[in-house]
Amino acid sequence: MTTAPTPYPIGTPGTPWGDAERVEWLSRQARQRSYEAEVLTVVERLSARFDVEEYGQLTYGADHYPLMALRSRDWREDLPVVLITGGVHGYETSGVHGALQFLDGRAAEYAGRVNLLVAPCVSPWAYERIHRWNADAVDPNRSFRADGQAEESSALMRLVAPIRDRALLHIDLHETTDTDESEFRPALAARDGKSFEPGYIPDGFYVVADTENPQPGFQQAIIEAVEPVTHIAPADEKGEIFGSPVVARGVIQYPLTQWGLCASVTNAPFKTTTEVYPDSPEVTPEQCNAAQVAAVCAAIDYALAQG
């Protein structure tokens, strides 16, 4: 695995960043891909089959991004709601394209059975820069709370509020990458004036359940569905993945609400966060997208079977 650079090139070790450090960090973030070309064009094409809405606008300097969601065209008040989110961390590519691929190729199977609400790219500024944070050096996936500092997160919370108590399922599509260890965790430590403690990146797919409502059968159904597509991350020598105990094969737990994570935005009985590993030499981008689709389908199938 990649070794993190030390010390981080911005700031003074042990001292939290101020405005000058944040400005320097922002100056280093260059656009590397196009949200309009890679995401909005797909959303436009899908608008022939789904209702599309703009649920917010992001503005960072001269950059403006419409935040887009897609809904089932045959939305019915008597059907359960399935929420799918991707791109909360913009650099986690298969979360975005897996959500869009599900809509394009598999969503029709659930017509008349569930209402789908899909926000495929929650953080478009970060998507373009292949980054974890937004332009304010804030992690949207720690900001799903009333006092959250990320507009990306606040906008999604406003979108979801009407279905918060109606949702059957929320699946939040993520990736764990080698750059978590080489860039993003060192940057976090530097930003907060803390010491960086090197770790390791789990080699394979895993899911994150809610500590308060873990639903072990649901989580395992996803693991079993994804395994034919990509390998499952093993526990380390401590029996952990990313410092959290492995409670079942490929499953760890986080306190979703306490940490302000995206998967806490509804009161759905079934919640999970997927974590695809795209840096494995054993997988391709197509397999990563397919793993996300397999996870979504397995999650919906399991949740429907329980109802």
Please outline the helices and strands:
Blueprint: H1 19-27, H2 35-46, E1 50-60, E2 63-72, E3 81-86, H3 93-105, E4 115-119, H4 124-129, H5 151-160, E5 167-175, H6 179-192, E6 206-210, H7 216-226, E7 240-241, E8 244-245, E9 251-254, H8 256-259, E10 270-276, H9 285-306
Parallel strand pairs: 3-4, 3-5, 5-10, 6-9
Antiparallel strand pairs: 1-2, 2-4, 6-10, 7-8
Helix pairs in contact: 2-3, 3-9, 7-9
InterPro entries: AstE_AspA_cat, Peptidase_M14
Cofactor: Zn(2+)
Pfam family, one: AstE_AspA_cat
Q: Mind explaining what this structure looks like?
A:
By secondary structure, the chain is of the alpha/beta class. It has one domain (19-306): 3-Layer(aba) Sandwich (Aminopeptidase). The protein is built from 9 helices and 10 strands. The protein has helices spanning 19-27, 35-46, 93-105, 124-129, 151-160, 179-192, 216-226, 256-259, 285-306; strands at residues 50-60, 63-72, 81-86, 115-119, 167-175, 206-210, 240-241, 244-245, 251-254, 270-276. The strands form 2 sheets. The protein has an 8-stranded mixed β-sheet, sandwiched between helices. A two-stranded antiparallel ribbon has the order 7-8. Strand 3 (81-86), helix 3 (93-105) and strand 4 form a beta-alpha-beta unit. Helix 2 (35-46) packs parallel to helix 3 (93-105) and helix 3 crosses helix 9. The protein is globular, with a radius of gyration of 19 Å. The N and C termini lie far apart (43 Å). 48% of the residues are buried. Residues 1-5 have low confidence and may be disordered. Residues 31-307 form the Peptidase M14 domain. Its cofactor is Zn(2+). This is M14 family metallocarboxypeptidase. Keywords: Hydrolase, Metal-binding, Zinc. It holds the Pfam family AstE_AspA_cat.
